[in-house]
Design goal:
single chain; about 180 residues; Arc Repressor Mutant, subunit A; two-stranded antiparallel sheet; 8 helices
Amino acid sequence: MKSRPSRLLFHLNLAQMIGGTTMKLTTFTDYSLRVLIYLATAPQRRATIAEIAAAFDISEHHLTKVVHHLGKSGWLANIRGKGGGLTLAMPAAAIVVGKVVRDTEKVIAPAECFETDGTDCCIERICRLRGVLGEAIVAFYAVLDRYTLADLVHNDAALARVMFIAPAAQHAPARRAP
């Protein structure tokens, strides 16, 4: 997988904004959001797993698992056969980013004390860190809940150029520039 300078620059700027450290979502959630962004960028056309994988330079195998989950969860309409492909199952404005992250992350456990099977921490019963981290998670999701997929693709023309999405009128699969 090749590193993209723009992604690295974003990561570095984000790290600087929040004091040099970042919270990291799972790769599964990252890929899920990328698939949804790709499809929302050109909602009038169907896309394939292969073209989305090529646009982001990621594994088709991993993306297949992601797309299967997004389809089962109702975020995608997966159409099989000739002329098939992937589309959003609802308008981008109806897809709340926080809901997608909750669905794909399942549980965010920033410390051992958040795990359901208990911990070996001797201060667990009197420690206040769990409450502070819990508050931070609530705030994290509160921010994500303020945004929809439509908010993330206002710059759809620029996104389409970067991801090499062909206009719908051409009915051609996305291809990478030489």
